[in-house]
C-alpha cells in the first residue's frame, strides 16, 4: 500500500516507544532454550518478531501470547529442541534468520531457512562460514537463502568477524552455547550488546573485555539457560523517527518515553546533537537491565556534521533517517565507513540517495556511504515518490521527510513498516502528522 506524508508546521505530544526489536528476538529465543517458563513483557509485536516466535515454536518451545505485548514461553531446557517439520520462514528479518541459525547449529538440529525477496538477497555466508568452522554443515543457494543447516557436536572457535555485525557475533555465541570449549568473538568495533546482556539475565556466564573501542567476548559451551521474566525496553531506533520529525517541523515538542539508552545504539542522538539538534535525554528508570529514558525534541536548525567512524555501528540502522536530517541541514554531509548499509533490508546507500534525489535533494553515493547537499531548514523541495525497496526504515524516513518538506512525499509501498513498527502511523498521527495511506 502507498502512503503520502503532507507538510505540517507542528508536531506535539508524548508517546511510549514500542518494544525493542533486537531484544524481542533474543527474549523469545533465549526463553525457548531455557529450563522453565519465562514471561516477556512489552514484546514488539512486529512481523519480524512474530516470525521468530513461530520459528521457536516450530523447534519445540511452547510460545503463547497471553495479552497485548505479554508473552509466555516455556523452554525445553536440557531436553533439547527438535527439528522443525517445516521450513523456517524468517520473513524480512536478518536478525531472526542469523540468530536462529546459530541456535539451530548449537542445538544440533537440522532446519531449512527461507525468507522474503529482501532476505533472500542478503549474504548468509558471514554466519555459515564460522558455523562451518565449528562443525555445522550447510547447503545453500550460493551463500543465500533458501538454505539447510545441520548442526553436529560443535567445537568452540575464536572468531573475528570481518564486518562489524551484532548478528554474526550473536550467531557464533549461540552456536558456542552448544559447543565443546570456550567460544571467543573478537570485535574490532563494538556492536550492540543485547545478546551478552540478556544471556546473563538467563543465567549464562559471558565474559567481556573492552579495549580500544572493541571487545573480546568469551563464553563456555554447555551452559544451561534458566527461565526468567524479561521486561523489553523501548526501541531507540523506532523512537528516532518520532523525535527526528519533531526536530524538523517549525513548532511543537515531541517526547518519546521508555527509550532504551545503550551506548551501542545511541549514535544518532550524538550525531544529531553534533548538528545542533535541541534534544533532551532524561533517565527515568530501568527495564530488562537497560537504562530507560525520555527523549524530547524541539524544532531545531541543523548544521551539517559528519558522524565519526567510531559511532557508525551505534547508528547503523539510522542512516536513512540521518540522510533526511542532513537534507534539512545547512552544508554538505559526508558519510563514510558504512559499507554494511549495502546489505541491509535494501541497499541502504542506494535507497537513501534515491529517496533524497526523488525529493529534489542533491545526494551522491559513495562505495561506503553517501554525500548530501543540505537544503537548510524548511528547504527540502519534496514532491517525490520514494521506492521503499521492502525496507521499513526507508519508508519511515521518507514519511518523516514529508512532514517538513515543501511538498508531500509519497512512498510506493509501506507494508514493510509492519516488520518493526506496526504502530508507526498511529503514533505519527497522534503527534499531528498528516499521513494518508492508500
Ligand atoms: C541487529 C544487528 C544489526 C542491525 C539489525 C539488528 C541485531 O545488524 O542492523 O537491525 O539485533 O543484532 P548487523 O549486526 O548485521 O549490523
Automatic annotation (TrEMBL):
- Which Gene3D superfamilies does the protein's record reference? Enolpyruvate transferase domain
* Biological process annotations from GO: amino acid biosynthetic process; aromatic amino acid family biosynthetic process; chorismate biosynthetic process
| Catalyses which reaction(s) | 3-phosphoshikimate + phosphoenolpyruvate = 5-O-(1-carboxyvinyl)-3-phosphoshikimate + phosphate
State a single Gene Ontology molecular function. 3-phosphoshikimate 1-carboxyvinyltransferase activity
Which segments constitute the Enolpyruvate transferase domain? Answer: 7-427
Under PROSITE patterns, the record lists: EPSP_SYNTHASE_1, EPSP_SYNTHASE_2
Task: Give the EC number(s) listed in the UniProt record.
Answer: 2.5.1.19
Where does this protein act, in terms of pathway? Answer: Metabolic intermediate biosynthesis; chorismate biosynthesis; chorismate from D-erythrose 4-phosphate and phosphoenolpyruvate: step 6/7
One Pfam assignment: EPSP_synthase
> Where is it found, in Gene Ontology cellular component terms?
cytoplasm
Which keywords does UniProt give here? Answer: Amino-acid biosynthesis, Aromatic amino acid biosynthesis, Cytoplasm, Transferase
Protein family: Belongs to the EPSP synthase family.
Subunit comment for this entry? Answer: Monomer.
UniProt cross-references to NCBIfam families, sorted A to Z: aroA (TIGR01356)
* HAMAP family linked to this entry: EPSP_synth
Name of the protein described by the UniProt record: 3-phosphoshikimate 1-carboxyvinyltransferase
Species: Hirschia baltica (strain ATCC 49814 / DSM 5838 / IFAM 1418)
Amino acid at each position: 500500500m502507498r502512503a503520502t506524508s503532507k507538510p505540517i508546521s507542528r508536531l506535539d505530544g508524548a508517546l511510549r516507544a514500542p518494544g525493542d526489536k533486537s531484544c524481542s528476538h533474543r527474549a523469545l529465543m533465549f526463553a525457548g532454550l531455557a529450563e522453565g517458563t519465562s514471561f516477556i513483557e512489552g514484546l514488539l509485536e512486529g512481523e519480524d518478531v512474530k516470525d521468530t516466535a513461530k520459528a521457536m515454536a516450530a523447534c519445540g518451545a511452547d510460545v503463547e501470547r497471553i495479552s497485548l505485548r505479554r508473552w509466555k514461553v516455556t523452554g525445553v531446557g536440557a531436553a533439547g529442541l527438535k527439528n522443525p517439520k517445516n521450513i523456517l520462514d524468517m520473513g524480512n528479518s536478518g536478525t531472526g534468520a542469523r540468530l536462529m541459525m546459530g541456535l539451530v547449529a548449537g542445538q544440533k538440529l537440522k532446519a531449512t531457512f527461507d525468507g522474503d525477496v529482501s532476505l533472500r538477497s542478503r549474504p548468509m555466508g558471514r554466519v555459515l562460514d564460522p558455523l562451518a568452522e565449528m562443525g555445522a554443515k550447510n547447503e545453500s543457494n550460493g551463500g543465500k537463502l533458501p538454505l539447510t543447516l545441520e548442526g553436529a557436536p560443535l567445537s568452540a572457535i575464536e572468531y573475528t568477524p570481518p564486518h562489524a555485525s551484532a548478528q554474526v557475533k550473536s550467531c557464533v555465541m549461540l552456536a558456542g552455547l552448544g559447543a565443546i570449549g570456550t567460544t571467543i568473538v573478537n570485535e574490532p568495533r563494538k556492536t550492540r550488546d543485547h545478546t551478552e546482556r540478556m544471556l546473563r539475565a538467563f543465567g549464562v556466564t559471558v565474559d567481556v573485555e573492552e579495549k580500544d573501542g572493541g571487545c573480546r567476548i568469551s563464553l563456555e559451551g554447555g551452559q544451561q539457560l534458566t527461565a526468567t521474566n524479561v521486561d523489553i525496553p523501548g526501541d531507540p531506533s523506532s523512537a528516532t523517527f518520532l523525535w527526528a520529525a519533531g526536530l524538523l517541523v517549525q513548532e511543537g515538542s515531541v517526547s518519546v518515553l521508555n527509550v532504551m539508552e545503550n551506548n551501542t545504539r545511541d549514535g544518532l542522538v550524538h550525531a544529531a546533537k553534533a548538528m545542533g539538534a535541541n534534544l533532551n535525554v532524561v533517565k527515568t528508570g530501568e527495564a530488562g537491565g537497560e537504562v530507560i529514558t525520555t527523549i524530547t525534541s524541539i524544532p531545531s536548525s541543523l548544521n551539517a556534521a559528519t558522524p565519526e567512524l567510531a559511532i557508525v555501528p551505534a547508528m547503523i540502522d539510522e542512516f536513512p533517517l540521518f540522510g533526511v536530517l542532513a537534507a534539512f541541514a545547512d552544508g554538505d554531509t559526508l558519510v563514510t565507513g558504512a559499507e554494511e548499509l549495502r546489505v541491509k533490508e535494501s541497499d541502504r546507500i542506494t535507497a537513501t540517495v534515491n529517496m533524497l534525489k526523488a525529493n529534489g535533494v542533491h545526494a551522491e553515493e559513495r562505495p561506503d556511504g553517501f554525500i548530501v547537499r543540505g537544503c537548510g531548514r524548511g528547504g527540502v523541495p519534496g514532491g517525490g515518490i520514494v521506492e521503499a525497496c521492502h525496507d521499513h526504515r526507508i519508508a519511515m524516513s521518507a514519511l518523516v521527510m514529508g512532514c517538513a518538506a515543501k511538498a508531500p512525499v509519497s512512498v510506493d509501498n509501506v507494508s514493510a513498516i509492519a516488520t518493526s513498527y506496526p504502530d508507526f502511523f498511529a503514533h505519527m498521527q497522534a503527534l499531528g502528522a498528516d499521513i494518508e495511506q492508500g
